Amino acid sequence: MPTLVYDPLVEKHLIDERRRNGLDRWDEVWEGAYVIMPSPNDEHQDILDNLVIVLKPLIQTTGLGVVRSTINVSDRFSDWKLNFRIPDLAIFLKGSSAENCGTHWYGGPDFTIEIVSPGDRSREKLAFYESIGTKELLLIDRDPWQLELFRLSDGGLQSVGTSSVKTVREVESQTLPLTWSLLAGDSRPQIIVRHVSTNEQWQV
Fold it and tell me: 158 near 130, Cβ under 8 Å?
């Protein structure tokens, strides 16, 4: 259940303990409020690892941009620790208005992926991502399985398409030369990434 801690001593002890034990890797700060996120399970990490394996050669090796996983993204150049999120994956294309500050990126990625875990409030992050100018965001739901693509339009991230095992529909990015869809698999649905120019496909 959600827990609110108003006692500053308890708060400090809790945060210090998490940092000391390395449990704060995915913790975020939302407008000054410390948010403890659930650690990703094995399936979550497997999906993310395979997405990086597919996307790095397509984006980074070809010089289109950089691919980063679980980095800090903020709406501030300084004092960024007062408001930041940690997307599962972020892509910054050449010419991006976002700035790499070393500790964090200031400004929105061109393409972001969030893999939904129980209780992680991924959809509540959309307002933040749109406020920093994230161009597109792919939400990977796993209960039930669905891909949903959001695109920045009129100042907001608008849903532009979904794909599920039942529909087997592709959702096409306008930022990357890629489409995304779901295909039924043995242990779980597979995410199909297709290059629109070469028609090459990869399973994640």
Answer: no
Contact present, 5 and 14 (Cβ < 8 Å) = yes
Contacts of 67 (CB under 8 A, 6+ apart): 52, 55, 56, 59, 60, 89, 90, 91
Report the half-sphere exposure of 125 (CA within 13 A, side-chain side).
29
Angle at 137 between CA 131 and CA 142, to 5 degrees: 125
> For residue 95, what are the contacts with CB-CB under 8 A and spacing of at least 6?
none
42-46 mean pLDDT: 95
Q: Domains of the chain (ranges plus CATH)?
A: 40-203 (3.90.1570.10)
Whether residue 37 is predicted with pLDDT greater than 90 in this model: the reply is no
CA distance 31 to 96: 24
Instruction: Read off the pLDDT of residues 148-195 as tens digits, 9 standing for 90 and up.
Output: 999 999 989 999 999 998 887 899 999 999 999 999 888 899 999 999
Query: What percent of the chain is predicted at pLDDT more than 90?
Result: 73
Rounded CA-CA distance 110/95 in Å is 10
Helices (H), 99-190: 126-131
User: Are the C-beta atoms of 34 and 10 separated by less than 8 Å?
Assistant: no
Of the listed ranges 13-27, 70-84, 88-102, 123-137, the least confidently predicted one is 13-27
**DSSP tag of 189:** P
CA 58/CA 60 separation, integer angstroms: 6
